[in-house]
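Pasting two entries for a bug report.
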Amino acid sequence: MAQRILVIGNGMVGHHFVEQLIGSDAGQAGRFDIQVFGAEPTRAYDRVHLSEVFERQSSEHLLMGPASLYQGDSVSLTLAAEVGAIDRAGKRINVNGDWVDYDALVLATGSFPFVPPIPGGDVPGTFVYRTLEDLDAIQARAKTSKTGVVAGGGWLGLEAANALKALGVQVHTGKATQQVEPVGHDAAQNQWHSTVQLWPDRSAGGALSYNGGPGCGHLQKTVA
C-alpha cells in the first residue's frame, strides 16, 4: 500500500520537494500517494521575479514545472486550500472543513511579509509584495496613483520598486541601514526608465537616487 504524504504549501520549496520525491527511486516505484495543498489559487510560481508580470502582461512564464506534474496517478494538488487544524495524535489535517489522514506530513508554508507595527500600516493603499494577488491589488491602485513608497531596500524591495516603475508610478524606496542592495547582473537587466529615489538610513539625512538607463545605471549621492 502506498504511503500517503501530505504537503502543506505549494510555493517554491514545496514544489521542489514534490519534484525530488517523485524522482526518487521510491517515487518511481509508485510507493507514495502525494497530496499537495496550496493556499493560493495558482500553482507554484517563481516569486523572485514578480515584477516581470507587469513587463510581460502575463504570469505564465513564472509557473514552475509542467501542470502534468500534479496530474499523475500518485500526485494531486488542491488549490485555494485552507488548512485549519493538524491532529498529530490522529495523523490527520483539516482542509476546508474536511479531515484528511496521512502517514507523513510536510510543512512547506514558506514565509510571510512582515508589516512593521506603525501607524498607517493598515490604511487603504498599503500593500505587501509576495503573491500574484498582491500584484493585482497594486496594479489596480496604481491606475489612480502618481507616487509610491516601498519600505525595504533589499532585493525584493527593489523588485517591488521596479514593479511600480513598470506601472508608471514615481517610486521612493526606504531602508533602515546605510547600505542599499547592490545593482548586480540580474538587476541590471531591468529596464529603468525613470528615477527611483532610495533613502537609506533616513535619520542620517542622506539619499541615493538611481539614475540608470536600460541595462546599466549608477548610484548618485544627493542631499536630503
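Entry 2 (this is the one that rendered wrong in the viewer):
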Amino acid sequence: AAPPRARRGHVPGAGGAGSGGMSAMMAAMKQRGCLFSMWQDLGPALPHGRDHRSRTLRQELFDAYDVPGAGVLYQANVVKGVMRRLPYIMGLTDPKVVLNRAFKATVETVPSIAKTGSDKMDRNQFRFFLVYLWHYFKLYDFFVCRDATPSRKAGPDDFHGFLPMLREWGCHEVDAWAASPERAFAALGRGGPGGADVYFDDLAEACLRRCLLRWNSEDDGEERDHAIQALARTHPHVVASKADLSSGPSSGLASGATSR
C-alpha cells in the first residue's frame, strides 16, 4: 500500500487572493527567514538520504508510483505522485513545471541501468531526482528569502550567494566560478554580455546538473544495485553491464555543456 500522502501544494493567490495579498505574504515570509513553515514537511515528500528510514520510504514511494510494476517510473506517474506529497511552497506557482524539469535533468545526467526511454527512470535515478529537488528548494529558499519581490529574475548577486552552498554540496566547478562569477553567471544562466538577469529555474538547473555529475560519481552503488535487481526481473535483455554504467553519461555534460 502507498504511504500516507503529505499535504498537497496549491497555487499561491488561488481563492481570491490578489497581487497585494501575495506581496504581503511574501514579505512576511522573508521576515521569518525561511521558505517553508518547517523544513521537515519537505523531508517525507523527498526522502533522498542514505539512512535506513529514507531508503525505506523511498522504496515505498517507488513501488507506489510504479503502477504497472515494471521496475521503472513513468514521468507522468512520478510527477503526479510527488506533486501530491509536496507541502505548500510559498511563491511556487506551478510545481509541475519544476518536477518535469527535474525529471528531465536527472535522466539526461545520471546514466540509466537499462535503456527504457527518456520518459522513464529507474530506482537509482529516482533517488537522484529526489536529491535534485531537495537542493533545488534549498536554492529557491535562499533566492526568495533574499528578495521576496514576486516574479523577479535571478541576477549575479544571487549566483554569488549560491556559491557557498554549491561548494558545500561538492560541485567541483565552484572555485573556477568564484574566480570570475560574472562570467560564470552569464554562461550558466545564458544572460549574455553584461550579466543580464535570467529566470531562476534556468540558473538553478544549470548549477544542479553539474552537482548531479559529482553526486553520481561519488555514489556508494547500493541504490544502483537495487535498480539492477529490479530491472533484471522485468527487462533482463536490456539491463546494462556495470562496465557500461561506469562510463558515465554520454550527453556531453561532463565537459560542461548543459542540455535543455
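Dev reply: Rendering is fixed now. As a check, the viewer should reflect this: The chain has one domain: 19-237.
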